[in-house]
Write a structure and sequence with these properties.
The complex is a heterodimer of chains A (443) and B (1059). With 443 residues, chain A is mainly β. Chain A contains three helices and 22 strands. In chain A, the strands form two sheets. Chain A has an 18-stranded antiparallel beta barrel. In chain A, strands 9-13-12 form a three-stranded mixed β-sheet, with no helix packed on it. In chain B, 52% of the residues lie in helices and 17% in strands. In chain B, helix 8 crosses helix 28, helix 12 runs antiparallel to helix 13 and helix 18 runs antiparallel to helix 22. Classes of the chains: A mainly beta (443), B alpha+beta (1059).
Chain lengths: 443, 1059
């Protein structure tokens, strides 16, 4: 019964994608033939207020190619149509603006239709201060798809499904204040409402290792109170041709830790978000024609200071060194080395229940990137790989994007997971290698 | 992987169909193959040495490619008949299509000044077939007393004369040579060594030599011998395979793997539109060598079938056991070859990349084609073949004994190995890096005999130039001429130099002729006397005779150096002798610039060889890194690396000891160790590791003996099969192929020996390496260091090519007026106002008329005086997927920009690499350099002319890039003499074809600043064009420096830019 429903969803979704494709092609043809440029959104003014209207229509489709499926499900892991409306309002007499990004979506896989407010904020600039209040995306740090001091929430499910990269970031409801006194700048971010990471769900992903499969899950988010608010700060300075930054963060791990009520026969498992402090620094500069990046951060697990609670993450120090260079015209390559050292390792080992998978004390990862632009940069081929040296696992992401016209893009890609063991970062997903495609018409 | 194997075993026809389809698709590209047989073209079209040569040739009216036609008669060429034939030949040559007729140099065309009846006559010595013996004698006397002729045009003993036939630009050397051969035959003369009959008759023999002949013959020879010997080697290989295994499916398998992988690699090579150079022509041979890796699979299958396993299971299990080392060794080889991509030579890059591609193909085929074939083949056939693998075989018994010996005598072997290494390293220090393309041919070949015949009699077939630049009038002064004379004498001391000629010789010879007295063979004492002589020479019928030696204005002089050898080292000594002489000179302000074919060959040699060595080094580093990684141990990685290192060191050591030059073929071939030596040692170490971890495998010694006997047999078979096959190449008539044969066999045998003898010894000496992981700290350190190496690889490779590029490029002279015009253009175009704001629309138009549009707003501020640091802030508005993306540039005139990009979708500011200023700006035909200005010191310029262009009076300036800093060989700019804005620019490639054109299409004066409001750039090769229009232009708006920062990058300054 359920099977057939899935199959139907899949057929429907494929049909919709085709419809969307033809629709967008027609729209583009219309846009190109029309004398006035109709594809550039709508920009005008209303009294003292300038406004602009933009958006896109997106069809997105991902299918597993491992031949393995979650019990009772087919190999489609994502099938969605999505429409975005973006509104910008600017005051013409003050340095203030407001922006809204609202998505409406229809997720054919779980048969859910809904709206999602991606961004809604007010910008205000006065003297050396910039304020941004509302729902916004927050990022910093110098890693390439590797995050050390950027502990803001991320949606790894979206990332692993090959959705557009902007969906990797989960927006926060926050106030960001920036004080700039060149060459110094200080950012202060207050996040009163906790937003967790998007964790790959069991309806879309097969877990190679799932110890609490049968147990009931009880999500325990930090309460929205002033004491529980997250704070992040950054001090940035450019000196000696180098961008330096210091970071600090007080808040929580955004990915849940699972604490069973009974380790041997769990009935309920609490998904908790332990307290976390992060201190770190980064630098980035030109070197030999490329860009050198280095970043380090210390994660202090406040709820597990001596690393003796096996259910909670331990304190650790994470560092990365990366180099990116345009090797040939329109071919950029990059590599990063990431090392992560777990503190109080002996205590962690001692506390670990027998038979439980154990993290290495020092975890090493390499990432490699190659980006190639062709046909006057309308065709982008990119390859990115996370290679776990210590964990012996791999995530390779291959993607080709073709801009059929200025407003229509087609993407084909694949995420390939591999690992010796099912207990590692990517090894746990080794049955989830997928191919995906999406088509976007923007206006 | 197991699934793939199982699938192939269960559905063999499906798999074969799939492979056939892929092969057919890739193979369909092959007919489009574009061959470039000229080894010279392996050097990039924009290599600095090409620009230097082109400039020198232009300055001195020289023609680059010259065929030397030597006429030899052992009884002397000074006879009526012989001179008549020389005259006829010279006249006929001038008429040959493709020969620059006016520039043919011979006794019949080169002017000589003689005093006849007190009249100064300037005419060639041979003006027609001599009528009498007296005339012959007069000619002989005249020619032999003129040092301009002796050695260059006639042999000192009078047995030979040379005719130099320069080729027209773009003429095909091979075709011209064929036409010359026909002309020679029509005159009844015989060519080269075939003339033994003619020798008896006392007739002349004609030899063809010179660079076009060598390049052309080489190209033909390389492919001809490749076509003969690589199939022959393949045949031998398969015969040897069959002899050992008696197993048809297997022989067919290996053969198919090598052929299919070759089709894949070459198909992709051709399909991507890359020209196949000499190097890539070697890809099939390399892939054949690497394909033998699959012998290990058959070897293992043999053992398994013999022990009674069912076929299907035996196949799957064999691949499961051998799988890992096969995967790993093929990947390692592929990575090693891919490291050659760090080379700055396009030819080496494609070679490395496509050998790597082919290797990956071999890997894929090992797990698909092999199991499919095996499952299709008759079980009894496989059984009978497998029977041959019994350990009672002689080979197995010998290996058993060998294993016992290697294990028992590990100490002695270790010490002996160390001694061999030390000896080899000693030998390596004596290696001479040199290249001599003529020596590549067999001693009896036409090229070599011609070269030898001419070098014996004349001053040599190798030609180089030493250009000397000084202030105007330098070389019409006595000091200048004395300098040239001294330089010539100094250079002449280099043993391989046959003849040196300079303006000093020309002037002296003319003075002697004028005075009719040999005692006047000296430099005149005054400028006036020199000026008079120069006037006399210039008034002859061929002013080029003077132009070849000195430019107009006497600021630059050219010294001809003729070399009796093609050793590139000889010209290196010439340059160093000249430089030493220059350094010890009182005359100041002189600059030396080597050029000509000999210099080209020198640069070609150095860049190819050293580049190859550097890339090979990177290959080694990468392989070591992979080994350390795979084995999770620094020590084990190093041990497994040893056979590769030892094989290479021993081969290089032997070269050093026997005194063979380290040349191009050797450097290419030594990369093969990446594919072979590493394969053996990975199989050995991986199988040993697996064996010793199996329960009941006994002691380390037992495991070692087992490994030597069982996987060792595969290694030995692989080595024997392959060296047997390639030994045939020793019989090739072209030394690079002899080198291939000998080296292949040597690499195979040495690496097999190193693997089977030294690895056991090392494991006995360091027994704990295998069992325990090496300490964590060491592994971490090892991997980290190796990772860093890999991270820095592209940077260092780039830096090293950059420095080597600048080291070989001579800095050229630039014309001060042209420099000034282009400086003013630079300021008028890129720096007007103290700041600037504009809305920019960029239309990208394809050949078929499709339009894409980019819209952006730009802010610029000059920080200091015009021409110094600038800041740019650019906000994109269209297309929609880049809307709100913004771009900040801090531009510095003399170093890489700082560039930051803001990506609004993820709210992130990132620095981006800025070294390649030639990359396209937003996919348009404009480069970053076109947008923000090209560093003035990157070009040298000359003012060509003044010209009216649409009513504007324009300077036309030619710019030539220094080094390889641009994708054009030269650029012509039409600069408005009023506004100093560029009205038109044309970009030319190395073949002097225009490929890109800029036009300033609309100009307006805005707030007092002349501004191009519309400009276009058209790519003439693709028909793609970009039109840029600017509106809402404002100068001096008062934007602050603080706007050019991350703050405003994230959110535009609303005062100037609305989203």
């Amino acid at each position: 019964m359920r099977q057939s429903k899935r199959r139907e969803a899949r057929r429907l979704s494929a049909a919709r994608l085709a419809l969307l494709a033809t629709g967008s092609l027609e729209l583009t043809a219309f846009a190109q033939s029309a004398p006035q440029d109709t594809s550039a959104g709508l920009e005008s003014s209303l009294g003292d207020l300038n406004y602009a209207l933009h958006g896109f229509v997106l069809g997105d489709f991902t299918t597993r190619v491992s031949g393995q499926n979650p019990p009772g499900l087919g190999d489609i892991s994502f099938a969605e149509e999505r429409a975005r409306l973006e509104v910008l309002l600017e005051a013409s007499d003050a340095d203030a603006a407001a922006r809204f990004k609202l998505d409406a979506f229809n997720d054919s896989l779980v048969n859910r239709t809904g709206v999602e407010l991606r961004e809604a904020y007010i910008d205000y600039r006065t003297g050396p201060f910039d304020f941004r209040l509302g729902r916004q995306v927050l990022s910093w740090g110098v890693g390439d798809l590797q995050f050390v001091n950027d502990v803001f929430p991320k949606d790894y499910a979206a990332f692993f499904l090959g959705r557009p990269i902007e969906y990797l970031k989960v927006p926060n409801d926050a106030l960001r204040t920036t004080l700039t006194v060149e060459p110094l700048a200080v950012d202060l971010v207050a996040i009163p409402f906790f937003a967790p990471d998007g964790v790959p769900g069991r309806d879309r992903f097969i877990y190679g290792f799932d110890p609490f499969a049968g147990a009931a899950m009880d999500m325990v988010y930090p309460e929205a109170s002033w004491e529980n608010a997250e704070f992040a700060a950054r001090l940035r300075v450019t000196a000696a041709e180098t961008d330096f930054a210091l970071y600090a963060y007080r808040g929580y791990f955004h990915s849940p830790s699972f604490v069973p009520d009974d380790p041997l026969a769990p009935v309920t498992v609490a998904a908790v978000f332990p307290a976390l402090d992060v201190y770190g620094a980064s630098l980035q500069r030109n070197l030999l024609g490329g860009v050198l990046s280095a970043e380090a951060g210390h994660y202090h697990a406040r709820d597990n200071p001596r690393s003796d609670n096996p259910w909670l993450p331990t304190s650790r120090t994470k560092g990365l060194v990366g180099y990116q260079s345009e090797l040939l015209t329109d071919l950029t390559i990059g590599a990063q080395y990431i090392g992560q050292l777990h503190h109080h390792y002996d205590a962690y080992r001692a506390a670990l229940p027998p038979g439980a998978p154990r993290l290495d004390e020092y975890v090493q990862t390499i990432t490699l990137r190659a980006n190639l632009l062709l046909l006057h940069q309308t065709l982008r081929l990119s390859a990115f790989a996370f290679v776990g040296i210590s964990e012996r696992d791999l995530l390779a992401m291959l993607e080709a994007e073709y801009r059929i016209s200025d407003s229509l893009s087609l993407v084909l890609g694949s995420n390939i997971f591999a690992g010796d063991s099912a207990y590692t970062t990517f090894g746990i997903f080794r049955e989830n290698s997928n191919v995906y495609t999406w088509l976007r018409f923007s206006f | 992987m197991k699934r793939l194997v199982t699938f192939s075993v269960d559905h063999p026809w499906w798999m074969l169909g799939l492979i056939t389809l892929l092969t057919a698709v890739l193979g369909s590209f092959l007919p489009q193959i574009r061959l470039d047989t000229n080894p010279k073209n392996m050097l990039a079209a924009d290599a600095p040495v090409r620009a230097v040569n082109q400039r020198i040739e232009q300055t001195f009216a020289l023609l680059p490619d010259t065929i030397v036609v030597g006429v030899v008669n052992d009884s002397g060429i000074f006879s009526k008949e012989a001179l008549a034939r020389v005259f006829a030949l010279s006249t006929a040559l001038a008429k040959v299509e493709g020969v620059a007729s006016r520039d043919v140099v011979s006794l019949a065309t080169t002017n000589d000044a003689v005093l006849e009846n007190d009249n100064l006559e300037i005419r060639p010595p041979l003006r027609g077939p001599p009528a009498s013996e007296a005339e012959v004698e007069a000619i002989r006397r005249e020619v032999m007393q003129n040092p301009m002729f002796v050695g260059r045009l006639v042999a000192a003993d009078g047995t030979a004369t040379a005719i130099y036939a320069p080729l027209d630009a773009g003429a095909d050397g091979g075709a011209v040579a064929d036409r010359i051969r026909r002309v020679v035959a029509d005159l009844g003369l015989s060519i080269g060594s075939a003339g033994s009959a003619a020798r008896e008759q006392g007739a002349e023999r004609v030899y063809l030599a010179g660079d076009p002949i060598v390049s052309e013959t080489m190209a033909i020879e390389v492919f001809r011998q490749l076509a003969i010997f690589s199939p022959l080697a393949a045949l031998f290989m398969f015969i040897a395979l069959f002899a050992i295994f008696r197993n048809t499916p297997m022989v067919v398998g290996v053969m198919l793997i090598s052929m299919i992988s070759t089709v894949w690699a070459m198909g992709l090579h051709v399909g991507l539109g890359l020209t196949v150079h000499l190097m890539s022509a070697m890809i099939p041979v390399f892939l054949m060598a690497i394909a033998t890796d699959s012998v290990h699979i058959f070897n293992e299958l043999g053992f398994r079938l013999r022990s009674g396993s069912a076929k299907r299971e035996a196949i799957i299990e064999s691949l499961a056991v051998v799988g890992r080392p096969v995967i790993f060794s093929d990947l390692t080889s592929a990575a090693g070859f891919a490291a050659l991509a760090s080379s700055s030579f396009p030819a080496i890059r494609s070679f490395g990349i496509f050998v790597a591609v082919g290797t990956i193909g071999i890997l894929a085929l090992s797990f698909t084609l092999v199991p499919a074939l095996l499952s299709l083949s008759d079980e009894r056939r496989l059984q009978s073949g497998a029977g041959r693998a019994e350990p009672s075989l002689l080979a197995s018994r010998v290996l058993g004994a060998f294993g016992r010996f290697a294990v028992a005598r590990s100490g002695a072997i270790g010490i002996a190995g160390l001694a061999v290494l030390v000896l080899a390293i000693g030998g390596m220090t004596r290696i001479r890096i040199n290249n001599n393309m003529v020596d590549w041919f067999a001693a009896s070949s036409e090229v070599r005999s011609a070269d030898q015949a001419l070098n014996e009699r004349l001053a040599g077939t190798g030609m180089g130039y030493l250009a000397v630049h000084g202030p105007e009038g330098t070389f019409s002064s006595p000091e200048g001429l004395r300098f040239l004379k001294g330089l010539a004498a100094e250079v002449g001391r280099v043993p391989e130099v046959g003849k040196v000629l300079s303006l000093a010789d020309v002037v002296e010879q003319t003075q002697v002729a004028l005075r009719g007295d040999e005692s006047f063979r000296q430099i005149p004492d005054s400028r006036e006397a020199i000026a008079q002589l120069l006037l006399v020479i210039g008034s002859g019928s061929r002013p080029e005779d003077l132009d070849n030696f000195v430019n107009y204005g006497e600021a630059s002089a050219n010294v001809y150096v003729q070399l009796e050898t093609w050793d590139v080292d000889a010209f290196r000594r010439v340059i160093s002798a000249a430089q030493t002489y220059l350094a010890n000179q009182s005359l100041s302000g002189l600059r030396l610039e080597p050029a000509g074919m000999a210099y080209f060959n020198l640069v070609w040699n150095d860049e190819m060889l050293l580049g190859m060595l550097a890339s090979l080094g990177w290959g080694f580093a990468l392989v070591l890194l992979l080994l350390v990684w795979e084995y999770r141990s620094l020590t084990l990685g190093l041990i497994a690396f040893l056979p590769l290192l030892a094989t290479t060191v021993v081969i290089y050591g032997v070269l050093g000891i026997i005194g063979k030059d380290f040349d191009m073929p050797i450097s290419v071939l030594s990369t093969l160790t990446l594919g072979l030596a590493i394969d053996f040692s990975i199989h050995f170490v991986s199988r040993l590791k697996l064996r010793s971890s199996e329960p009941g495998s006994g002691t380390l010694e037992d495991a070692l003996r087992w490994t030597i006997e069982r996987p060792g047999l595969g290694i030995v078979r692989n080595a024997v099969v392959f060296s047997a096959a390639f030994v045939v190449m020793v019989f090739a008539g072209f030394s690079p192929y002899v080198t291939v044969g000998v080296l292949m066999a040597a690499i195979m045998l040495l690496s097999a020996l190193a693997t089977l003898l030294y690895l056991p010894a090392l494991f006995r000496i360091f027994p704990r390496v295998l069992a325990s992981k090496s300490s964590r700290a060491v592994a971490v350190l090892g991997t980290s260091v190796s990772c860093l190496l890999v991270l820095l690889l592209p940077a260092v490779a780039r830096a090293s090519t950059a420095t080597s590029g600048s080291a070989t490029s001579g800095s050229a002279t630039s014309d001060a007026q042209a420099d000034d015009i282009m400086r003013r253009e630079y300021l008028a175009y890129y720096y007007p106002g103290s700041d600037f704001r504009a809305s920019v629309t960029m239309k990208l138009v394809t050949k078929s008329g499709d339009v894409r549009e980019r819209r952006l707003t730009m802010l610029r501020k000059n920080l200091g005086a015009p021409g110094t640091d600038q800041r740019y802030l650019i906000f994109f508005q269209k297309p929609d997927d880049v809307r709100r993306t913004s771009f900040l540039v801090w531009k510095y005139p003399n170093k890489d920009d700082d560039r930051w990009l803001f990506l609004p979708a993820v709210d992130l500011v990132r620095r981006i690499a800025a070294s390649d200023r030639r990359s396209s700006f937003m996919g348009s035909d404009f480069t970053y350099e076109d947008i923000s200005g090209r560093d003035l010191s990157s070009d040298t310029r000359t003012l060509v002319k003044r010209e009216k262009l649409a009513d504007a009076d324009c300077f036309v300036v030619e710019s030539r890039p220094q080094g390889d800093s641009a994708d054009y060989a030269r650029k012509l700019s039409w600069v408005d003499s009023q506004t100093f804005l560029p009205m038109k620019e044309e970009y030319y490639d190395a073949q002097n074809q225009i490929f890109k054109a800029f036009a300033g299409e609309a100009m307006a004066t805005i707030e007092g600043q002349p501004t191009l409001t519309r400009r276009s750039m058209k790519d003439l090769r693709t028909g793609h064009a970009t039109i840029v229009e600017m509106s809402a232009i404002d100068y001096d708006v008062g934007v602050g420096e603080d706007v050019f920062s991350e703050r405003f990058l994230r959110r535009p300054p609303m005062q100037w830019i609305r989203e």
